[in-house]
Amino acid sequence: MKRWKNRRMSGMWLALGMTGILALSACGGETTVGGGGETSSAPASSAAASDAASPEAPAGDFPTPNGGEVNLYNWTDYISPELLDRFESETGITVNLDNFDSNETMLAKLQAGGANYDVIVPSDYMVAQMIELGLLQEVDPAAFPNGQYIKPEFMDVYFDPGRLYSAPYMYGTTGIAYDPTKTGGEITSWTDFFDANSPAAGKIGTLNDQVEVIHAALRAVGAQPCSTNRDDYIKVEELLAGWKPGLAVINSDGVIGRMASGEQIMHMMWNGAFTRAQADNPNLQYVYPAEGITLWSDNFAVPVGAQNVDNAKIFINWMMDPANIGEATNFVGYDNGITGSSEFMTAELGANPAVVIPEEFKALAAPVPGCSVEAIDLYDQVWTNFKK
Question: How many Cα atoms occupy the beta-carbon half-sphere of 193 within 13 Å?
């Protein structure tokens, strides 16, 4: 396990706000777009923000910081090093950070045993899967002192009704990033992305993410994610086999740098990562593919077997403070599931169409609940053949 301080990544701005996120649950809710102010150079401390906004925050038996450590397993470049510095300073708890590049990598490592993590960051469908597998502890984050700030639309989510096992972190979309000055024209669809004759061939990259890649490929062949029609997967295998020779990399790590530098000129990409790459390469554009786009959310959870459960709770509660999660949003470029965080976001909120979905594309974005066992088996088979 590596200390997080060994990894530095420059931060960026922008947060995702949109009414489409309401599809995550049966509840109504708010959007954080439009009210963001300038983030101060010295954000309010978590204690100050909580005291000001929640005079009736429950004390109960919630643990208090008493040193020690917390072992965090997170996506690569998905939290500000400066924010973790501040957590350590305010709580006296040392953060050890290890990184993964896909939900499936994380799941496999936990199932294999020997991984001593206290807080993990699974996506929505993976939370549901891990609950069913008995891999997550029921810690009831909604009852934490800062649990009151969870946005209503993030409470009764399909993957964790009532928020008994997970706390919201960030949400966003998975689309296509490309440089139109080098691809020979406009990209508008997953069909364009998987075109074996694309002018971008040789400089195309995709995420090392079985679910996202096969979701997209199914859409490109005219099917829907989680299909159980085997004929759809025959088409997907043919599509991917023809496309693979022009594929330069299958890797979720380092995408920002590769796209910013021009090493790749088209890549499947998360929208927050895109905004950070675009800051260094203004030519880049973000595509809402015509066949549809995945709207996802990532979450904090405590795995069964965690050794530092009290410190895990303290970390998750601290991250649900509006000031702290607002600072996290400014770094990663995604919006979050915490009410009041927009007050701590930068003035550029909503300025980028990759971050705030334009009205004409909102109908394209929707969450994809976990697939059936039958569909997962088909995904596994296709992915294994694709990665050979």
Answer: 32
Rounded-to-5 percentages of helix, strand, coil across the chain: 40, 20, 45
Q: Are 313 and 144 in contact (CB under 8 A)?
A: yes
Residue 209 and residue 235 in one domain: yes
SS3 258: helix
CB contact at 8 A, 171 and 297: yes
pTM: 0.76
Q: Give the model confidence (pLDDT) of 167-188 as tens digits.
A: 999 999 999 999 999 998 899 9
| Residues 13, 23 share a domain | yes
Query: In which domain, by residue range, is 180 found?
Result: 174-295+362-387
* Residue 286: both structure tokens together: 């973000």
> Rounded CA gap, 347 and 330, in Å?
10
Tokens of 376: 């997962």
**257 and 147 share a domain?**
no
Q: How many domains does the chain have?
A: 2
From the CA atom positions of the chain, what is the Rg in Å? 20
Q: CA-to-CA distance for 311 and 317, rounded, in angstroms?
A: 10
- Pair 62, 318: CB distance under 8 Å: no
